[in-house]
From TrEMBL:
Record-linked InterPro entries: FtsK_dom, P-loop_NTPase
Transmembrane helix among keywords: yes
Transmembrane segments: 149-171, 191-216
GO molecular function, one term: ATP binding
Residues of the FtsK domain: 360-563
Keywords, in A-Z order: ATP-binding, Membrane, Nucleotide-binding, Transmembrane, Transmembrane helix
Binding site for ATP: 385-392
Keyword flag Nucleotide-binding: yes
SUPFAM superfamilies membership: P-loop containing nucleoside triphosphate hydrolases
Protein name: ATP-binding protein
Domain of life per record: Bacteria
Amino acid sequence: MTEIIDINTHRPRPITDFTKRDDQPRPVLEGVVIPNDTPTPTPVRPDYGVRVRRAVGVTRHVITHERTKTGARLVARHGSYVAGGAGLLAKRAWDGRSAARYERMMRIAEAAGNSEEAKEWEERGRQFRAARHQRRMDMLTMPGRAAKALVVGTATTAGGLLGLGMLLAVAEKDPGLVLAPIMVTIDAIRWAVLIVTIVWGPALFLAPWAAFLGLWNVGRLRGAAPQWALPARERGDGEPVTPSIVVKALRDLGIAPLRNAIKSMEDNGAGMLSPIVLAGCGVEVDITLPSGSSTEEVLNRRRKLAENLGRHEHEVHLSIAPAARTVRAWIADSGALDEPIGPSPLVMDPDITADYIKGRAPWGVDLRGDTALISLYQRMMLITGLSNQGKTASLRALALWLAHDVAVRFWIGDLKGIGDWRMFTGIAEVLIEGPTDDHVIDVTEMVKAGVQEMNRRLLAPSGNTFPPLVIIVDEAQVAYGSAARESYTTDNGTVRYGAPYGGSKATSRYFQAVKKIHDQGRAVNVTIWEGTQDPTNENLPKRSREGNHIRSSLVLGTESQARMALGDNAVDAGAAPHKLRQGLDKGVVVVAGDGIKLAPGQPSITVRTHYIDEDQAKELAERIKARRAGVDTRTTAQDDETETVDHLADILAVMGDATRMRTDEVRHGLATLNPAVYARWTAQDLTAVLTAAGAAPYKSGVMVVSANLVREAIDRRDSGTEDAAESDGE
Ligand SMILES: Nc1ncnc2c1ncn2[C@@H]1O[C@H](COP(=O)(O)OP(=O)(O)OP(=O)(O)O)[C@@H](O)[C@H]1O
């Protein structure tokens, strides 16, 4: 019988079963011993893959551990102090011994166009060189003069000491004192030598350390360590932005050519910067990069630059300035972007008005704190972003402003349908709410009706003006993602399908209708605004997103989504909705395109929109309704009245027995016949209908309608000889 003895305690210990593949050895039966002849169990080791994975896991843990990071920072910080201090002292020494300083100052003065100062430095440099030359010439004769001085000095000192000794001897009447001063001096020299020999060893040992400490201190005082290597409390978060901080932040960006160029600059990089100007709740500075560094490299290192400046990433906005090789940096005051921006002027000013043509909606404030005004005149619009970031609220805010212009008509499809747009009941002519396929079909019909309205306007005689029609589709991704289509059974029993209503393919009726409005709606005041979530090529087709005049985006997940939302140009030039903070930057939109004032050369702007919550929106809607002649909002695209109305028959009915009738009279008769449909008809509406039917009014003194032409048009239509209706690509 064998026991297992613990080598530490020298006592028997429980036997462990290593055959288990667990990490933790398990006791078998405490107190039970294994007989001598029992073979020793072979420990099973984890296989190679598991071990590698574990090793990688441990390594990653160690590398990313906060203590490792702190240690790395410590080493980098103190190393940088010493290296920086050595560099600085070397530079000072070189400056002191050469004319480099004068040359440098001369070039700075020259670069600044200050020729007076340049001349002054040139003169100083000349004097310095002359003095140095003189010193060198003096050095040639120095050994002889030094030897002479040594002989003379020694003789003088010895004579002096001897004279002193004689005086002492006379005064004390002791001849032995004649040599006393010389002996004291010799003793003093001996002691000095003794002290030096004792101190020399330790001094020799300590000297490098003292030098090291000196270098470290010079580097520390000069702040030679990069920001990221400083401890949290010293990182200077929120410090005011000064030229030296900006240059240092650029130098430590990790772009070698930029760092080297800055180091070799005579003015330490100050010439790269424009004056730092206050811009809203931050400052703005243009950075002209030295050749060899590209704006793209700096744009790609936004986070590091922000950290070097003591800011969070979202507090630094970089864009490409109009001047070549120049990056424009806007740096927020620390924490300023988290301050609320205040309520919307719509909420604050009950007398606010809107003008579709000349007005601009007060949407929010830009980063500089200036009011961001946006013109919606004849502009298609897209707003996108991740879910729950303020898309509906910001789109609705624009609609609420525009609704103050009583001439603007709204058709709204809300494919979420939880009531976000319900306050537009009584303002919008159509309000479809809901997420189902039926709602997608309805919204598609609504947009197609928009196309018809657009075509009617396009066909109307030139010179006509039309009331603005704004079609809004919120959560448009539901339509682009829908597979809804009608099916019907043919006489022989085969089931056939119509073209899909939704989807992003060319056969999608919704997509085709949106595309048509994008293509031609602008000129006749038919525009469409789409709000959509989390864009992809599937739920927001390229052709559709590019048809918008205003493209705006709340926070997005990736740069590729940002490119979809705003276009490559804007993102290449610094637009970065993917850098906004999800959940924290709600209502912050990056806007590209026209309609909003942009600085020259800037393709995008970041706007912090005013939040108009649902209650405020309802209140505003009530105010708007009070200004407008109320409309009966339909909750479906199907317009029963207009569907059943036969305009040509009505016109003929109004004309009665007359062969001709003035257009004004016809309109008046129509309005009396069916006010719901014709009360708002303009002369252009009448002309458009008659022209489209081939019975256009003509001039006979005044504009008149011919009953015969109308009758013929009806005959043509009824006999099916009129042009086939547009197929919408189905
Ligand atoms: N401008 C804003 N400022 C601050 N918070 C806002 C702003 N806009 C919206 N929010 C907040 O975001 C929330 C979501 O807003 P909203 O419903 O408009 O988002 P959404 O992107 O349309 O959401 P969904 O995912 O439903 O489409 C609001 O309830 C509000 O708390």
